[in-house]
Amino acid sequence: MSLLIIDRRPAYLGEDQDSTSLLMLPLGSRSYIDYIISSVGETGDVWIVPAFAHSEGYEKSLASLTHSSLKVVSRDRLTDAMGGADPEDMVIVIDAGVCPGCGFSKASTMIGDRGYLGATHVVAVGDGTERARERIVRDAQGNVRQVKRLFQGTSWPHVAHKRLAMSIVPAGALTNISFASLQELRQQLGESGVLQQDQPLVSGIVNLNTQEDALKLAEQLMPSAFRRAHHRRYSRKGRHVLVGSDCWIDKSVRIVGPVVIHDDVMIEEDACIIGPTIIGPGSRIGRGSVVAQSVLARDAVVESENTVRHLVSAGGQSNASLANQSSNGNGFAPLDFDPYASITGLENSKVESLPGYQKKVQMGIKRVIDVIASICVLIVFSPLLAIVALIIKLDSKGPLFFVHHREGKGGKEFPCIKFRTMGKDAHSQQKELYAQSEVDGPQFKMDHDPRVTRFGAFLRATNIDELPQFVNVLLGHMSIIGPRPSPFRENQVCVPWRRARLSVNPGITGLWQVCRSVDRSEGDFHEWIFYDTIYVKQFSLWLDVKIFMATVLTLGGRWNVPLSWIVSAHGHGKPRVQSPSTAQVG
Prior knowledge:
Elements: E1 2-7, E2 26-27, E3 30-31, H1 32-40, E4 46-50, H2 56-63, E5 70-72, H3 78-83, E6 90-95, E7 98-100, H4 104-108, E8 119-124, E9 132-138, E10 144-151, H5 152-155, E11 164-170, H6 182-191, E12 196-201, E13 205-207, H7 211-225, E14 235-236, E15 241-243, E16 248-249, E17 254-256, E18 259-261, E19 266-267, E20 272-274, E21 277-279, E22 284-285, E23 290-292, E24 295-296, E25 301-302, E26 307-309, H8 319-322, E27 325-326, H9 356-380, H10 382-395, E28 401-407, E29 413-419, H11 430-433, H12 454-462, H13 469-475, E30 479-481, H14 495-501, E31 507-509, H15 511-515, H16 525-537, H17 541-553
């Protein structure tokens, strides 16, 4: 396995600088090329193809930044270079201007079956579940009947042509083509008749050809500089400052971390460094200068009494180019940035009512309770389950169980098991009856559903049809207490609600079942969202106990109990819990 990297020199790095390119940028406590090579893992040859004119000085500068052996080759000589490789060897191709938001480590695991003889392209389909394509369905009167959403995980083919993160190609297929990007590579391979396949990667793309994205990547990689063992050659000057070897920093210099200072850096008196900032090797910062939330490449020079703010500098530049400059972009995050906190997007945020360690302990206890309780229920009610199974088979034709795929924790689908209460092929008839649904939102419900069998109506009224779900609880798909398990279609309507309810296991019973309106035919969707969100925010074992007691006292939610009986008005220092009629639900 070999590695081929297309290097670039965007306009913000200047021109004709053999000491500067994207691969030479300092990111965290190492260079970008070192980051790529270590992320991809053990490889054979490492080929560098610069997409710009270069001299021998470029190759020497690049080689000094990594312990790996590099081979620099121009585009027009790539065919000759690949001709010496075994045609069956695979080559990982990376464009330095395109970095997956999740990093190259995860992307390299998505290259598919190594036994596949064609090329595989890793396509970044979006950074999570937050982006969606939306379609509104209205009836003849113009009233909204449905909101259909397709999240990136479903609609990724729509972006496959422009979000390539990396490719893996047989070396033999690279001998007769010329390309300057991954998109051109895929086009050339297609014209050459090479077999190709795409693999979706749930991640965004960082475009390092723009200065703003380069700053974002530097911020994203900053925490690793303070965590990983390969930075032992750095010394700590305070909790948020790392300093390399052979540096000279005057005692009057003020540093507000996080700041990473590479080797052989000189910072003169009364200078001020404000993080997040990365200062590349060999840089010189003059007396009284200010460098704030920037990345200085190797050999950068900031003359005395000058300010550099929100910039990615070019190496070797001096007063003429780095004096009193600041970018127009947003640059780095606010100054209270904590390098020890993980940097994640909003799509990965979770609302927690308890400190992390307490929640993990209580979740572990909850799982033990679920396993013990589900085993007991299945044993105690086994005679009843057998009788119900016999009557179902005698009452109507069809399978014993209705198995429907629902979304569990993290959106992972699982087969939700219930006793069948409808006739055969009832699920396929739902589309014809959807216009007669008597509830709002994405769910479907009819008081007199013609698909329900005679015995099925009894099972639904007594909630006996849900007893097989204790098998799901035993297998870890569900919990006894939690949000109602819903299929993919129902979870697409409200994005924040989806994110919250899928952060925990769904349950057989929950807050919505025991607190919703007495008139169940109303089916207020906002109530459903409200109670699910409150449960996730206020989660604790004691809350589960109260929901379980309310379920028993109300005979499975036949009537409701006030929310104030279960959730305190002031939980864990959070704002007062409002009723569904006054709460604002996202």
